[in-house]
Prior knowledge:
Blueprint: E1 8-9, E2 14-15, H1 17-23, E3 26-32, H2 37-40, E4 51-60, E5 66-79, E6 86-100, H3 103-110, E7 116-118, E8 123-124, H4 125-136
Parallel strand pairs: 1-3, 6-7
Antiparallel strand pairs: 2-8, 3-4, 4-5, 5-6
The structure holds zinc ion.
Zinc ion (ZN) binds at residues 80, 82-83, 85, 87, 142-143, 148-149.
Amino acid sequence: MVMRTAGRRMEAGRFDAFRLAERGEILTGELDVAALARAADRLASAERPATLAWTIEGGQDGLGRPMLTLTVRGSLPLVCQRCLQPCDVAVDQRSELLIAHDEVELKRLDADEREVVLASSPLDVRTLIEDELLLSLPYAPMHSAAECAPAASTGREGMQPGQALPFKRSPR
Ligand SMILES: [Zn+2]
């Protein structure tokens, strides 16, 4: 896609999805994932910056239905499920969402096997981006074999259940 950086900067707040779609406008911003209640749980450390860049572009699908195209890009420190150390995972998510005026339309569009979001009232940027991010995060992030801290020194695979995560610091 051609770089279109003329999007309107927006860090948080709500927007009218149908107006954005009708006008083909773009919103852009950055989001600190550590400040998102649900996604923050996935981070290896709350102290490391975890900023993602996002865009929300309004438009229409091939049938002329209003839709939003979301992109979320950056890198997040997640927990490697093999060595339990922080593991930087690239995020490069692009999703297309149809927007529905009401529940009836939501059900109808949903039957079409498309992602649909109810936009009867203005949508919250952070909730929308967080929802997409949670869908895109790997269920079991892992280092590549070469980067993963060797578990060989302990002579066993992984760690025991309930063992404290070695990188967790004391609570705030
Ligand atoms: Zn690892």
